[in-house]
Amino acid sequence: MTWSDWEAIGPTLFDPSRDTPPPALASRLPNQIDIFRIANNELDYANDDWQSGPRWDRLHWMGMPLQPEHTGKLRGVSASASGAGNLWVAVNFNSRLRYCTFDGHGWSDWKDSNDVIKDRPAVSALDGETTMIVNWRDDNRYVWMKQNPNGAWSEGAVGDRLFYGPPTLISDGKDWILFGKGEDKGIWVNRYRTYTDEWVGWTSLGGNNMAGWEVAATSRGLGKYEVFYAAKDLRITWGVWEFEQWSGWEAHPSETKYVPFAVSHTDGTIDLYHYGTDGNLYRRLWR
């Protein structure tokens, strides 16, 4: 297994002068990516089944109106899937958490949690029965809410640590893994163990040369995860948790000022994307 060379796959579909948030990626089926982007303060959705070649500017983008309100400020989007009939999307709309689901046939109505949030929420569907959402509050703390198999929600705080960026949440197939930029400007990680229903505690991963305030993460298999961020030298830096060990950080040859984004659509694979400084969208594959 190794990384491919970077491939330019079209324009960025992104206007950094408007402080546009990065897209969100999920995968309901092997070799297929669900893409969500905010453009002109509207939420758009597309499905990349590789017929685009895989240029995203050739995808069929569909609008997802945030009913019942159609006006307001969208400040970030997160998405996650666990099987063909369990796709979740969460957004910050007018500083409140909204989320909806796709069951394989159609989209649900948007639900408003009434939670006031600071920036992009993070959502992760684990096994088709349980889903977790983590929010970043105005006091710079992370709070979580978990939907249980009976549909009820439980919630709580993720410790007392303060964070200076929105959360990133993934599942490694058995637990939830939460990442954020801490007070020391480095990356911190916490694990929610599903068999004990508790957080194990925060651990520093370093990464104090982050250029922005967000990290990207994905999992290519049970008990594994990969973390990516844009460094101050414009290179994408990544680290791997595998075999109960942390790899340390390694730089990708790249040039970006923006947070990368990644997805694993098939066990053992990673699709890594970044916006180049030349106005193009780039993709690199782990195969």
How would you concisely characterize the structure shown here?
This protein has 287 residues and is an all-beta fold.
Describe this structure in words.
With 287 residues, this protein is mostly beta strands. The chain has a domain at 23-219: 6 Propeller (Neuraminidase), CATH 2.120.10.70. Helix content is 0%, strand content 46%. The protein contains no helices and 26 strands. The protein has strands at residues 7-11, 24-26, 33-39, 42-48, 62-63, 74-81, 87-93, 96-102, 111-116, 122-125, 131-136, 142-147, 153-157, 168-171, 176-181, 187-193, 198-199, 203-206, 216-218, 225-230, 236-242, 245-246, 250-251, 261-263, 270-275, 280-286. The strands form six sheets. Strands 14, 15, 16, 17 and 18 form a five-stranded antiparallel sheet that branches. Strands 19, 20, 21, 22 and 23 form a five-stranded antiparallel sheet that branches. Strand 7 (87-93) and strand 8 (96-102) form a beta hairpin. 40% of the residues are buried. The mean pLDDT is 88.
- Describe the biggest sheet? 5 strands, antiparallel
Any low-confidence stretches, pLDDT <50, length ≥5? none
By CATH, the topology of the domain at 23-219 is Neuraminidase
Within CATH, the superfamily of the domain at 23-219 carries the name Fucose-specific lectin
The level 1 CATH classification of the domain at 23-219 is Mainly Beta
Class by helix and strand content?
mainly beta
Q: What assembly state would you assign to the polypeptide chains in this entry?
A: single chain
Strand content: over 45%
Q: Supply the CATH architecture of the domain at 23-219.
A: 6 Propeller
Q: How many DSSP helices?
A: 0
Distance between the termini: 5 Å
